[in-house]
Amino acid sequence: MLLPIRDHNPSERFPYVTLGLIAVNVIVFILQLLDDRITTVYAAIPAEITGAPVDPLLRARLAIEHGIRAEPVVNPWLTILTSMFLHGGFLHIIGNMWSLWIFGNNVEDALGHFRYLLLYLFWGVVAALAHIVFNWASPIPVVGASGAIAGVMGAYMLLFPHARIDCVLLFVIITFVEAPAIFFLIFWFVSQFLVYNPGVAYLAHIGGFVAGFLVIKAMGGPRRILQGRRRRYYY
Length: 235
What we know:
Helices cover 59% and strands 10% of the residues. By secondary structure, the chain is mainly α. The protein has a single domain, classed as Up-down Bundle (Rhomboid-like fold), CATH 1.20.1540. Helix 7 packs across helix 8. The chain is globular.
């Protein structure tokens, strides 16, 4: 396992949006801890979004065992957005917010605050849809900012492939290594196909990452986006 600690890629603009997103996610997580109905109401359930039939007995059992709603409370399509700000536990939110800080500030710096915010939300939606397409009848709720953050990571790989990332390598012993961003991010992307945990929406990660990469390509690539900025961004 390879875990990022920090990058060596200072930004020029103050990352208002990245810090704001982190703050909103943390505040919502605290509210989840205080009232678990927030998770029940605002998590995204693929079967509700697609209108797929769900066995009433299965839905009732899930509602009892996992607090899953028996019926939708808000528009199911709205939950694609709301679920991006919910998390399933301390490790989930810490890992997501740490990754958002490492990669988000530079992507925000490159894209500008408003465009970055719109694309962050767009990548989160694409990530959720990637999961829903292949799990269209699933009654299991999906929460987390991972898909949107994967989009940020996909954008970062194309924008700053040679930025240096300090990582922790967990393999028999703990080792600290420094690697180019392109190496770490390709490693992370490939691992989504190789590692399986039934509680993780890997397809959302993959969809978000690919969306982030393709959006930067569609915008003209790093040279056009970073035109006039320091050469360190793409060399």
